[in-house]
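Blackboard transcription, Thursday session:
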Amino acid sequence: MLKKIAALLAVGLLATTGSAFAETLINGAGATFPYPLYSKWFSEYAKIDKEVKFNYQSIGSGGGIKQITAQTVDFGASDKFLSDEELKGAPGKLLHIPTVMGAVVVTYNIPGAPKGLKLRSDDIANIFLGKITKWNDSRIADDNPGVKLPDKPIIVVHRSDGSGTTSIFTDYLTNISKEWSGKVGKGASVKWPVGLGGKGNEGVAGQIKTTENSLGYVELAYAVENKLAYATLMNKEGVFVEPAIKSITAAAAGAVKHMPADYRISLVNQPGKETYPIVGFTWLLVYEQQKDKVKGKKLSEFLTWSLHNGQKMAAPLLYAPLPESVGKMVEKTIKGIKY
Amino acid sequence: MSDMDSAPLTDRRMIKGDAIFKGVILALAGSILLILLIMMFEMVKESLPAIKKFGGRFLLGREWDAVQGEFGALDFLYGSVVSAVLAILLATPLSVGAALFITDIAPRKVGNVIAPIIELLAAIPSVIYGLWGVLVMAPWLQQSVQPWLIEHFGFLPFFQGAPYGVSMMAAVFILMIMIIPIITSITKEVLLAVPVSQKEAAYALGATRWEMVRMALIPYARSGVLGAVILGLGRAIGETMAVTMVIGNTPQISLSLLAPAYTMPSVIANEFAETTSKLHASALMEVGLILLVVTLIINIMARLLIWSVTRGDTGARA
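(Written on the board underneath:)
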C-alpha cells in the first residue's frame, strides 16, 4: 500500500515538474493603473501561446521601477517615465514601451448640478491652490450659464497615497499654472495647499460620493464605473472637451511631431482641438539586451501581439489605444530588443 | 544493584536532554531579540541620510514636501499620539464596563452569548473597519454628529471648523471600536481569575454589588486591566489601514477634532510604495523608527505604571 502511494507521488511529482519545464514564466511588476488591461492581455495571450505564462504584480509604478532596476522581474510597468538619473542607475539600457493611454478626470458632487460642468484650466489650478473657494465663484459660474451653483465651499479631495494618477494630474497643473509650478510642483506625492487626502481611487471616489459640494480627481475608468460626474475641461486651443477614448488618443496624435525616440514624453495639455488635456502614457519597461534567450523571445512576441490584437481590447476597458503613427514607431522599438 | 546502575544512566540521559532543550529554547528566544536588533539596525541604517540631513529638525519640523525634499514629522507624531490616546480614553471605560457586565452582572447565559460576539469583533480585518468608516460612519458624522456639535459646542476649540466627516474624530471612533474587543476580552479573563472567595467575602461583609466591584474585584484585577489597556494602546498607535481611510490624511496640528489629521503609520503606508527620491524613502524610514521608539516608550511607561500600582499588592498579575 505504502509503496503504491509512493509510486503515485513520484509520478505526480514528475508530471508537475515536467509541465513546469515546458512553460516559460515571465515576471513583471509595477503600475496599478493599467492592471485591469494587462491582466486581460495576459489571460488572452495564454490562449494563443500556451508555452508562456505571465505573472504581474500591481505594486505601483515606483515599485515597478525599483524591481526592474534591481532585475528581480523580467519587465516593469510605470505611469511615469524614468528620469535620466534613474536610467543611469539601471544595469543596462532600459526601453520604455508605451502600451496605452489613460486620462485623469476632475470629478465632483454638487447636488442638482448636471454632468459635464465646464472648467477652465486656470479654474482647476485656482481651486487646488485654494484661491477659488466657493462653487458660485464668478470664474466658474460664467462658463456654466444655467447651472445653479451653490454658495458653499468647495471641498477638495486628492490622493493621499503616492500614485501615477497624482503624477499626471500635478504634471498638468504644473504645465498650466506658473504659480502651481513655483509653489507645489509635480510628483507622485506633493504638498497639497488645500484639501483632504483619500487613499487610492476608491478613497477619493468614496469621499466625493458621500460629501456634498466636493471635487477631486480620479482615473477616467474609475469615474465611469462608479458613475461619478466629471467635468468638461478647456484644452490648449480653448475648446471644452469631454474625456473620452477619442479625445485621449488625440493627445498622443498631437504629440507625434515631437515624439522622442524613447517615448519619454508628458502628454498633458497637448495641442489639437479635440484633445483632452489631462492624459498620460503608461509604459512597460524592458531591457534592450535580454539575458534569457527564451524569455526575451517570448516577451518580444507578446509585445508585438499587444501592439496589434491587444490594442483592440483597450477601448472597452476605457483605455485609449495608441494612434497608428505611434504604434508604428513602437513596433520598430520592439524589433530592437536583442536576445 | 542493577537499580543503582540504571539510575545514574537515566540521570545522564536527562541531563543531556535538558541541555539540548535549553539550547533550543535559548536559540528561539534569542532569535526574537535578534530579529528586533536587525530590524532596528536596518531602520537606523536606512534612515541615516534623513537623520544626517535634518537632525533634530526632523522631529520638530512641520514641512513635509517630497517635491522640494524637505521633511519634518511633528504633524504625524501629533496625529498618532492624540488619536491613540483619545481612543484609549473612550474605549477603556466602555470595555471595562462590558467585561464587568459579562462576568458579574449579566445572567451567565447572556454573558456566554455576548462574550464570543465581542471577541469576534477582534477578528474583523482592519480594512473592513476602514471601509465601513469611510462609507458609513464618516457621512453620518458629517451630516448629523458634527453639525450638531458645531451648533451646540462650537465655542469650544475642539469643535470648530467645517464638518468634513473624515477627521481626527472619525479616526478616534474607528480606533475605539477596534480596540474595545481586545481590552474587553482580556479584562474579562482577568476578572474571571479573581477568586470567588474574594467576592463572597465582600458580600459576607454586607457589601453591595458596586462596593464588591470597587473593593474586591477592581483592586485584585487592577494590573491585569492596565495590561489590557496597554495592549489596546499598542494596537491603536500602530493601526494603519482603517485610520488612513478615515483621518483625511492632511498633515496639520489642530485642536479641533473635526479637522483632518495624519498619523505616522498612515504616511508610511501612503507614500512608501511610490517614493520619489532616496531622501523621501529615508525620511519615511525615520518616521518608522520614531514610531518604534514611541511604542517602546509607551511600553516602558506602562511597565513602570503597572509596577508602581502593584507594588506591595497581593493582587494577581497578568
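Lecturer's comment: Chain B is about 75% helix and 0% strand.
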